[in-house]
Amino acid sequence: MATTGKQLFTTLDADGTLTVAIEDVTFPEPVGNQVLVKMEAAPINPSDLAILVGAADLETASYTPGKFVATVPEPYNAGAKARHGLKLPAGNEGAGTVVAAGESDTAQALVGQRVSCVPGHAYSQYCIGDAAMCLPLGDHPAEDGASAFVNPMTALGFAETARMDGADAILHTVGASNLGQMLTRICKEDGIGLVNIVRKDDQAELLAGMGSTHVVNSASDDFQHALAAAIEETGAFYGFDPIGGGRSVDTAFKAMEQVAARRMTAYSRYGSNQPKRMFIYGRLSTDPTILTPSYGFGWTLSGWLLFPFLQSAGEDVVGRMRNRVRENLTTTFASSYKRRVDLDQMLTKDALTEYSKMKTGEKYLVTPWS
Amino acid sequence: MATTGKQLFTTLDADGTLTVAIEDVTFPEPVGNQVLVKMEAAPINPSDLAILVGAADLETASYTPGKFVATVPEPYNAGAKARHGLKLPAGNEGAGTVVAAGESDTAQALVGQRVSCVPGHAYSQYCIGDAAMCLPLGDHPAEDGASAFVNPMTALGFAETARMDGADAILHTVGASNLGQMLTRICKEDGIGLVNIVRKDDQAELLAGMGSTHVVNSASDDFQHALAAAIEETGAFYGFDPIGGGRSVDTAFKAMEQVAARRMTAYSRYGSNQPKRMFIYGRLSTDPTILTPSYGFGWTLSGWLLFPFLQSAGEDVVGRMRNRVRENLTTTFASSYKRRVDLDQMLTKDALTEYSKMKTGEKYLVTPWS
Prior knowledge:
The structure is a homodimer of 370-residue chains. Chain A has 370 residues and is α/β, with parallel strands linked by helices.
């Protein structure tokens, strides 16, 4: 018997018209290692927004129930040329109950279980997922497992990446995000030094309350000085940044070099030899990244993405990471949400305008059957 | 008997006053592994200019014989805080004849020989150098060996770095420079693919005449297209850039991603997984480096400096590189100069104004006894 349900699709035409709409879809029977999951909850992560909203003008868009049509201005439209005309699903991750499975033992074993999954089309009433990527949630409600993959595995991935590079302290430029809070708990549990940058006093208090010992507020007058002091105390010449655009990475490198320069015994026109390493793992800002020539040549900046990292890390590491997530779902890896919306509500002007700002503490959860 | 001679010193005061002057100096007796070299020729490399001129305003400077006094504007002056008040020598490398040596066998063996050396104060009639860093020039005149270190070892260092990273093709953003020409010869000899970017037709002809098969002119209308085609043909997702500021690296990453995107079978909002790697090894432009969010997350950008590279490469590799330079001094590693100046002439307005522009093909050679 065919399963039908509602699913979100996003299409960008060559002229810059972005159409995001809920449609009725018939889902195929799962085969092999596939499972069919009746979705109960899916978070709207920053990593979902590029495809869902991108640089579209939400103010001038037209909104009808279950649909919005907006214009993506240039040069963003031209930059997204590769997706022109493609009708794409959205939603990296979510949680729900397995209602059918392919013939493999792994898939069959999940029938009837509530699982966290990473289907890539989670804004939907049903999803086809890979059984190997499902995490059984036991008695946990779906909300506990909706965000069990992207943020937890990314935060753990930072700790793993640092370990592989021999770094024992991390700088994180958006400390109070859901991911930042997870990273704070992980670093505390694993004895990794952590410098958290926040933008508000209440965020600083939140992290301090979680036991974060080095929290620096970028809105304070002595920010640059305080940041350098925190780097000096922790040795965090290694960090992760989800902003990408603007001077976030530049500020971090400058503070790192400031600390390294203080330790130099002789002047060098080339700056210090202290290796400084930053990773951009998101694009909260699509402005260009600005790097000033003020920290010599001893630095490296890379993009960082979860899936390529998991591939390079290997099965053993990934298995260990996933077990740790499952065992600490409501503690280390707990997420919180500002608002729950169904598929139609997520495409209203109010909701879109709010969640597309990606403000810390304002994450949305899609509950497609509510 | 004490040896005296003229030497250049550069001093930046806290108020931004830059004083560069030739002074009479008494040189110490060489001890241990040191040699005293009577300098005959020293090139003015881009890497020397930061300390010699930096961002000083040469138009409003005051010039007297053997001296100029200029103002370094903010924020460059504040950025050079670490050298405020320090009286610094200049000139990374040069060549001359060893006239005295310390007691070590290595040093003694060089007495009377013409050598290439890396004293860090080569704008001088005499230098104290480390015998281990001297390259005996045999019958070569000093001019042949004046630039035997910085450019040759840097160009060879690129090839070594690429090999260590498993890259078999290199993109070089300033192909027609002295260093670029050396790199062209090295890549041809070693079977490494090379994409050379130039800015003028005559530079393209020069490199083509040297057998460079992929030369792209950034002034041509189809530059971006031609660059992508050259990257596609060579597989050069790996490159070196001496400009640093502006969009030089950004342009390279964009073209690399363009090639990688063509090979993708499915759309990904994150861009391709093709690793792209660039190194900034100079600062011909002190503008900020601009990186646009248009090539996903599969990229890494690092600073690259010769001395830290040599330290990490180890003695065997460095020894092999130095032998190759010595054996190919007037072929693979030949340099050419536009003009020869003595120590006083190098501080005249005409000379400073020209060589501080660091134009391709306009390198100066300092001949302190002429």
